[in-house]
Write a structure and sequence with these properties.
Layout: E1 2-9, E2 13-19, E3 24-29, E4 43-45, H1 50-63, H2 81-90, E5 99-100, H3 101-111, H4 119-127, E6 140-141, H5 154-163
Parallel strand pairs: 1-4, 5-6
Antiparallel strand pairs: 1-2, 2-3
Helix pairs in contact: 2-4, 3-4
Length: about 180
């Protein structure tokens, strides 16, 4: 059984949290692409789970400008071995920093002893991250500084990066492209 509850922040908006009763399995923004895509079946409402209280406290501190450790929360995203690996890489990106899809692809390729890996494959995994905000997919940008590929919307990606104090110089929103 998967349970859900809502959390709202006055500036960022509302998110839905999902849990298997012990771990967080999802965090999606209203209107987010792939909303609930890794959950099989319906999510039953339940506002009383201790894990939800813990996650809401984490989010309260994050939105208050603190930098709570991701490891404070038990996370259990559902995905392929490759996607899980990419999501673990996202959790290594420090607050206020950005990495490119290409950098992540090179890092994974080097770990595997391969010459290269597809940035697009990494981008697909990043885009399907089921625990947005907590697993910081918003910290990944295009190699040219383009702010593309955020399932929650470019405006939210910008908001999160600015909230974390990221250096926005050189980052931009493209006017056209397939990853807007």
């Amino acid at each position: 059984m998967v349970y859900r509850t809502n959390y709202a922040h006055p500036e960022f908006g509302e998110v839905t949290l999902a849990s298997d009763g012990e771990s967080i399995v999802g965090l999606w923004m209203t209107g987010q692409k792939y909303f609930g895509g890794t959950v099989n079946g319906e999510m039953a409402p339940n506002d009383d789970l201790p894990i939800f209280a813990q996650a809401k406290d984490w989010l309260d501190r994050y939105f208050a400008g603190e930098q709570p450790a991701i490891a404070e929360l038990p996370l259990k995203p559902n995905g392929t071995a490759f996607r899980l690996r990419v999501w673990r890489k996202l959790m290594e990106i420090p607050y206020g920093c950005v990495r490119t899809y290409g950098e992540l692809a090179c890092e994974i390729a080097q770990e595997d002893g391969r010459e290269k890996m597809s940035s697009q494959a990494v981008g697909g995994a990043v885009g399907h991250n089921p625990i947005s905000v907590i697993i910081p997919c918003h910290r990944v940008v295009g190699s040219d500084g383009s702010l593309t590929g955020y399932a929650g919307g470019i405006e939210r990606k910008i908001w999160l990066l600015e909230h974390e104090g990221a250096n926005m110089k050189g980052l931009y929103v493209p006017t056209r492209g397939t990853a807007l």
